[in-house]
TrEMBL record:
Pfam families xrefs: ABC_tran
SUPFAM superfamilies named among the record's database cross-references: P-loop containing nucleoside triphosphate hydrolases
Stretches with biased composition (Basic and acidic residues): 218-243
InterPro entries recorded: AAA+_ATPase, ABC_transporter-like_ATP-bd, ABC_transporter-like_CS, Metal_Ion_Import_ABC, P-loop_NTPase
Residues of the ABC transporter domain: 6-240
Residue segments, region Disordered: 218-266
Keywords: ATP-binding, Nucleotide-binding, Transport
Residue spans crossing the bilayer: none
Gene3D superfamilies: P-loop containing nucleotide triphosphate hydrolases
The protein, known as: Metal ABC transporter ATP-binding protein
Organism of origin: Nonomuraea turkmeniaca
GO molecular function, one term: ATP binding
Domain of life: Bacteria
């Protein structure tokens, strides 16, 4: 089986006949921490969903560890943190139950929850500082806390690859740092991360590769951008009004494109 986590070739997605992704070529290798960047509506979430087979391609191919999504069986290898999900989907569930659901892909049929499952759930709750809320209904948590529950659910599954769609959106600075620390430990262990972000913030030091999506195409794939000056300040909102005006190309192109991302790349 291929150890390339994701391999998309000429990936295309259309909604109601409107192209949203156009000719995406993207391989993600083990140990990479890939940040998908770009302005609102550029196609980042669509790309994440297409990589996972949640949104069908209208053209091209995509593979998860060497298999088309429809034939991929080792879902325990993938931990997905979706964007702005209603945690629990209206079903009454405790924080611990939602986090424990991250173990399901690891559990064979008719296997009882074992000590390893319990330990993984406890560790995941600790990692997002929610151990003291384990028995509370998820609906009683704030939006940012619910986001942390989703992150813990992915952590509990102990996957090889994490796919996180804006994991730090609506999450306070301390928790962003907590997530960055947790991910850096996972990366040391050889885990792979694909994340969507508008602000890398504390995640910036662990990102190894920046992939910039502009209007459904990859306009830069390489060294991650580094915020400097005004734009490095916490809470700075990045708008990318000039994204559509710039030309795809090497580093000078993406620096100009990501208005607000300035300075020398690493
Ligand atoms: N289910 C859908 N049906 C129709 N159009 C959609 C659907 N999902 C996304 N789109 C459109 O596809 C385009 C890309 O959306 P997508 O959510 O992938 O962008 P994004 O880069 O993740 O944006 P953001 O940064 O705002 O989250 C947008 O124009 C959006 O309106």
């Amino acid at each position: 089986m291929s150890e390339t986590a994701f391999s998309m070739t000429d990936g295309q997605v259309s909604y109601d006949g409107t192209p949203v992704l156009r000719g995406i070529d993207l391989n993600v290798c083990p140990g990479e921490v890939v940040a998908l960047l770009g302005s609102n509506g550029s196609g980042k979430s669509t790309l994440v969903r297409a990589l996972l087979g949640l949104t069908p391609l209208s053209g091209g191919t995509t593979l998860i560890y060497g298999s088309p999504p429809g034939r991929f069986r080792d879902w325990w290898r993938i931990g997905y943190v979706p964007q702005r999900l209603q945690v629990g989907g209206g079903v009454p569930a405790t924080v611990q139950e939602v986090v424990a659901s991250g173990r399901i892909a690891r559990q064979r049929r008719l296997r009882w929850t074992n000590a390893a499952d319990k330990a993984a759930v406890a560790t995941a709750l600790e990692a997002v500082s929610l151990a003291d809320r384990a028995h509370d209904p998820v609906q009683s948590l704030s939006g940012g806390q619910q986001q942390r529950v989703l992150i813990a659910r992915a952590l509990a599954g102990e996957p090889d690859t994490y796919v996180m769609d804006e994991p730090t959106a609506g999450v306070d600075a301390a928790t962003q740092q907590l997530l960055a620390d947790t991910l850096s430990r996972l990366v040391v262990d050889g885990k792979t991360v694909v994340l969507v972000a508008h602000e890398l913030g504390p995640l910036e030091p662990i990102v190894t590769r920046g992939v910039v999506i502009r209007d459904g195409i990859i306009s830069h794939d390489g060294r991650p951008p580094r915020p400097e000056g005004e734009c490095a300040r916490p809470g700075h909102e990045h708008q990318h009004p000039h994204a559509a005006e710039t030309v795809a190309g090497p580093l000078p192109g993406w620096q100009a494109e990501l208005t607000g991302w300035q300075g020398e790349p690493r």
